Amino acid sequence: AGKTTTIKMITGLLRPTSGYVRVMGIDVDKKPMDALSKIGTVLAGDRSIYWKLTGRENLEYFAALYGCSRSEAKNRAAKILDRLGLNEKADELVEKYSTGMKQKIALGKALIPNAPVVLLDEPTLGLDPQSALNLRQIILDIKNEGRTVLLTTHYMEEADFLCDRIAIVDGGKIIALDTPSNLKKSINDIKLINIEVDNAPYDMLNEIKGLSSIQKVISRYDEEKRDYILSIHHTDSNELMQKIIDCISVSGCRILNINVKEPSLEDVFIHLTGKSLKEKVENDETA
Q1: In contact, 170 and 141? CB cutoff 8 Å
Q2: Which CATH fold would you assign to the domain 189-262?
Q3: Which end of the chain is more exposed for a tag (fewer CB within 10 A), N or C?
Q4: Domain map of the chain by residue range?
């Protein structure tokens, strides 16, 4: 979609095909080292650190690359290890760490320069829920220190929890940019119904799409439950629910569950792109 590409351009790893990138007013192309001195970055998650070094050695090594003296490198590494809750495992090889601990060390690497701008490329990807929650709290603390945090994520609840502003990117273009609350308000007039059914034939979907006040109908297969979820966006009608139920019944399908809900960021994404975020990720990975 262009999220990681954007971060690579900000850090100077890729040159823009047009336009320019400035960090704290510094042109990245003209003064790359000056710009990079303002940035701490996590790219490629746990693959951006050395597994054959300990957590402490990793942080001290990267501190040295940023020009810190030996004593300053040790001091910064110790403070970050303490902040990340990794003191007990600091002198073990990173290859023995859990995925969550590796991601913490990668985040620690981004904190080493004490930079005003922190770039995080999908920092919680692949983490279990508790590890992801712990890392999000650390990121929130970093933001609350007054630093600028640019974060890419496939998790809408993460964006909602952490971000002051969210850019929704589709096909390399920003199609929406606003606060989480304003993005959700942008589809406030649109009501949302999720209906779980045992099948979703095209004729039935087309019948529902043809009903008045229907804005969009998205169908996805739930592999775990082995049924279908219909996400129906509409502009409200007192008789609409019964009409939808009639369409499903006439098609011979069985309704398993109905849920009427308030708009979420995921719903905003679906409304703007016509795809669920899961479908978008799968398409990006196979493209």
Answers
A1: no
A2: Alpha-Beta Plaits (3.30.70)
A3: C
A4: 3-152, 189-262
